Amino acid sequence: MKKILLAFFTATIIISCNENKTTTNTISTNTVNKTDSIAIKQFFSTALTDGKAYEWLRDLTQNIGGRLSGSPEAQMAVEWGEKLMKEEGFDKVWLQPVMVPHWVRGEKEVANYSINGTKINVPICALGGSIATPKNGVMAEVIEVKSLDEVEKLGEKVRGKIIFYNRPFDNTLINTFAAYGGCVDQRYGGTEVAGKYGAVGTIVRSMTNNLDDYPHTGSMGYGKAKPEDYIPTAAISTNASELLSKHLKENPNLKFYFKQSCETLPDAPSFNVIGEIAGSEFPNKYITVGGHLDSWDLAEGAHDDGTGVVQSMEVLSLLKRNGIKPKHTIRAVLFMNEENGLRGGKKYAEEAKLKNEIHVAALESDSGGHTPRGFSYNGTKENQELFMGWKSLLEPYGLTDWHTGYAGADINPLKNETVTLSGYKPDSQRYFDYHHAATDTFDKVNLRELELGSAAMASLVYLMDKYLDVEPVKK
Amino acid sequence: MKKILLAFFTATIIISCNENKTTTNTISTNTVNKTDSIAIKQFFSTALTDGKAYEWLRDLTQNIGGRLSGSPEAQMAVEWGEKLMKEEGFDKVWLQPVMVPHWVRGEKEVANYSINGTKINVPICALGGSIATPKNGVMAEVIEVKSLDEVEKLGEKVRGKIIFYNRPFDNTLINTFAAYGGCVDQRYGGTEVAGKYGAVGTIVRSMTNNLDDYPHTGSMGYGKAKPEDYIPTAAISTNASELLSKHLKENPNLKFYFKQSCETLPDAPSFNVIGEIAGSEFPNKYITVGGHLDSWDLAEGAHDDGTGVVQSMEVLSLLKRNGIKPKHTIRAVLFMNEENGLRGGKKYAEEAKLKNEIHVAALESDSGGHTPRGFSYNGTKENQELFMGWKSLLEPYGLTDWHTGYAGADINPLKNETVTLSGYKPDSQRYFDYHHAATDTFDKVNLRELELGSAAMASLVYLMDKYLDVEPVKK
Which residues form the Peptidase M28 domain (chains A, B) (predicted)? Predict the structure, then answer.
C-alpha cells in the first residue's frame, strides 16, 4: 500500500508542478495556494512513511560516533556524507577543503577534593580549546562566583586560586536556548578574565537545565589573553557544582584538584561536504540547507548535530523523490567545525563570494531533532511578510512559532543585504539535557520527530525556491 | 535567589487577587488582562524551578509501578495519592468507593509458529478482558485481515481459524491519536466479530506507530457476543506482525500457537482519590482536574497516566503555593479504572449528580506528559469564544493548539448543557511508542515537559475559575 500511495502522490506532485509553471515568477504574499499544500503534505507523507534520515543517523552516530574537527572520526564522517549523497544521486557531490583547529582531549580528566576527611570525586571534562594542567595537575583553594564581572571586581584576589563559575540556567525561561545564552559566557570567556588576574584554573558549572552527573563540554576561548596568562579550564557536572558550592560554605579553604592533558595540535585539513540538485531556471543562484558534521568527542553527536546533518540531506532527497524540479540550485552542506572554530561556515561563505555564487536563501538545522515548532527569519523587510505568510501552510504540522531572529552559526557568514536566512526551530525542552554531554546518543532521537523536521525543512526550501527572488539589490 | 523570586511573585499574586475582586463576576471575552499574565507566569516559574510533579511521578512509577484495577498495586496507588494530597494540605482529601472489574493476566503468555523448519517466537500479551486459551493453548491456521468488515464478509470461512488483525497506523497523520483512533477498533471489537463466526482466537497488531518488539496491551470487549462465542485475544508486536504477514505469504497454511491464562475475577472494591481546595465564593460549585490512577500491568504507567495524575495534584498545589484563593471549589480527582471499565469516571459523575454538585468545568490530562501544545474545548457556544480568547495568554508557553473536540474519557460523564470540559493536549509524537507497553517507564518523562504541563493546566483552571460562570442554564 505504501508504494501505491507514493506513486499516487508523486503523480500528483508532477501534475501540480506543471500547473504552477505560469506562477513561478510572481512574488506575492498571497501566492501560497493549494498546490503548495499538496506538495507540503507529500513531503510529510514521504518522510513519515518512507523517510531515510533516521537510519542515516543511526549509521553516523553508532558506527562513527563523536567526530571532533581534526579527528579520524571527523574524516570518516566526511567520507560517509560524500558517499551517502552520491548514492542518493544528487547532481553534484564534492568536498570543499578547509583547515580546522585540532584540539585533542588526551587522557580522561580527574578531579577531586576532600571535605571532613571524605574524598569527593568530581565528574569533569576539559573544555575544548583549553590547555592542559601541569603534568601532576593543579590544586588550589576555590573562589565561587556567578559572573565574569565578579572576577573583574575581585581582581588580584583571585591570584593562585581556582575560579568556580556557578551561575545556573534560568529555568523559568521557556526557550532553553535563552537560558543557555544567559550562562555560556562563563564557559566561553570566564577563563580569559580569571587568567588575567593570576588564577591557576577555572571550573565551570555545566551548561544544562538539569541536575545531572555528566560534565557538558563545549568551546572556550583565551580571547586577548597573553599566552603566559593561559590557564586550564574544565566543566564539572551540575550535581557536583551544587555539592561543591555547599561544601565551600562548610569549608571555604578546601582545596580542589584537577588534572587534564588536552592540547591544541597544528591546524588539520578537513572538508565541508556538499551535495546539490541543479536549478532548472537559475542554476547559478543557490539555496543552501545545512547542519554541522563535527561533534564533541564525549558522545555520539546525535541531537548536536547529527539530526541537522541527516535532515539537510533528506531535504534534497524529499525534493527529488517527489519530483520537484527546483528553479534554483539547492545545496545540502555538511559544515565542518561549527563546534570549535566555525571554519567550515566561514569557508563556505568566502568561497561563495569568490565564485560569485548568489545565495537566495539558507536554512540551518542546529537546534536538535525534537518535534518541530517553527522557523526563525533573518532577511530583508520586503521578504519578511512573504516568509511569515507561509506559516499558515505549516501550522497544520505543528510549526506555529515563526519569528524574526538569528538563523544559525554556519549560515550566518552568508548574511548580506539580500539573502534570506532561516533557522529550523524544534522544541527545545530536552535539548540541553544532552548538549555536549555523553548522553547525546541516538536513542534520544525519535523517528517521527526527526522526520517531521526533515519534511518541514523541505517545505520551507520548496517555498523559498518558488517564491523568493532572486536579483541582488542594486545600490 | 529562587526563594526571593518566589516571595516576590507570591506577594504579587496576592495583591493582584485583591485588585481583581471587583471584576470576578463579570464574564467577557476581553477580561484577560495583565494580572492574568502575571499569575500565569508565576505558575510556570514555580513549576519550572520548584515543581513537585516529577518526584511524585518517580515515586508512583518506580515504587508502585503498574497498577491495574483490582490489583494490590492499584490499592497502594490509592493510599499513595490520599497520603500525598493530605501532606499537601488540601482542604479536604477523601476516597470515593467504586467497584471495578478485576482482570488478571496470569502466567506470561507464549506464542510461536514454525516456518521452513524454523520456530519463530512471537512477543505477545493478552488483551485486557480476554478469556484464557484452553490450558494447552490454541493452535490454528491464520487468516490475516485489515478490518472487521473483512471478517464479516468472510463469515463462516473464519471457523476454526485464528484471525490476525494487521491494519497499521496511518503514519501520515500528524496527530498520532488520530492514527490510534483509526485502528483501535481491531483491538477492541475484532474479537466479537471473529468469535461470532467460529474463529478460535484473534491476534492483533500492536497499536503503535513504531516497528518494535513489544506487545502493546489494552482493553477489548465481547460486546453482545454470547458467552459460548467468547474467544481469546492477544496483541503481538508490530515487528512480529510484519514478519508473520510475510511468512503467511510464503505459507498460508502455517499454524500459529498461543497460550494465555488470564481471567476475569469478580468485581473488586476500589476508589477514586479526591482532594479539594474549597471555593471562597461558590464552595458548592466545582472545577475538577484529573487523570487516571490505574495503569496497565506491563509497565510503570508513566505517560499513561502517571503524568496526568501528578499534574492534576500539582494544579492544586500551584494554586495554593501562589496564594490563589479560587472562587469555586477546585478538585483533583485521581480516577480509578479508566483503562478497562471507566467505572471511576462514571461513579464520580453519578455522585456529583446525586449530591447536586454543580460542575462549572473539568479538565483532563490523559494524553501523556510531553511538551504542551494546547487544549481542547467541549462546552457551550457561549463559553467557546471566552475559552479560545485565553489562547493569547498561553501561546508564549508553547500552547498554540486550541481546538474544539473531545476532552477525555474520565470527565466525559460530567457532560451536560452548561459544563465546560477541556482536554490537556501535549505533543503526541512519542506517545504511542510507549502506550500500554513495557516501555512506558519513568525515564521516558522529561522534567521540564511535565512541569510545563502542570503550569499550563493550573493556568487554565485559574482562568476557568475566574471567568466561567456558574449558573446552570434554566430551561
Answer: 272-456
